[in-house]
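dude i think i finally got it to work??
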Amino acid sequence: MKICRFDDNRLGLVDGDKILDVTSALDALPAYRYPLPRTDQLIENLDMLKPRILEAAKSAKCVPVSSVTLLPPVANPGKVVAAPVNYKAHLEESRADVEINHNRQVIEIQTIGMFLKATSSIVGASEGVKVSLPERRNDHEIELVAIIGKKARNVSKEDALNYVAGYCTGLDMTIRGPEERSLRKSLDTFTVLGPWFVTADEFGEPSGQQMVLTVNDEPRQNANTRDLILSVRDLISWGSTFYTFQPGDILMTGTPEGVNRVVAGDTIKATIDKIGTMSVKVR
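look at this
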């Protein structure tokens, strides 16, 4: 399944260039009172909701993808965990480009570890990216994103993918400079997720997926997830020794080489095998 959130928090089942409005399937979710759950309830209850989504699709209103506002596919992630310099060629370009490294040593992911991004930075494809500090270099970074589907703590590498609900495309936008990664990558709109998520059973093995990013149709990034230094399995297993992953948590797996500047007026197109293309405006 390809599942999206659109317009006024509607739930959609993506079918080619159309969306089936299956919001009625959410009626099966339990009612909540304060204090609210600290997990995303769509993701936590996805297995229960899948047959209801398919049933709702039989009589659902159909709208073109091009006519809707695409929201982040996960409404309430508890945390965004990100993997820095997780492709060898990007590690090399980061060490070679002073505008990226800002005269600091770029350390391998196995040593420096992962980092957190603010959930307030998350937007959907339709909202786009806002350049708040145009005097600084603002870069694009395409990434495969794994959406955690169930509570995960100290999981094995062999079992790690069983904790994934689905996958989407991510843009890990960043301002270059001397500050810590978590600050420079947590500006409003600097975590773009979308255009929808593909359930893990449909997506299959995350290794071997091609990723392409263009800016104004100019090729910038073109790589394959088989070249990750730490695989999705590795990241989930390693991360779960530090964090307890919860349903709806976002795992950004790292960007390949080719990162570069964007400015207001640009259009970023990010494509990943089995997911599709996410078009994002920069303003």
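The longest strand covers residues 164-172.
im so relieved honestly
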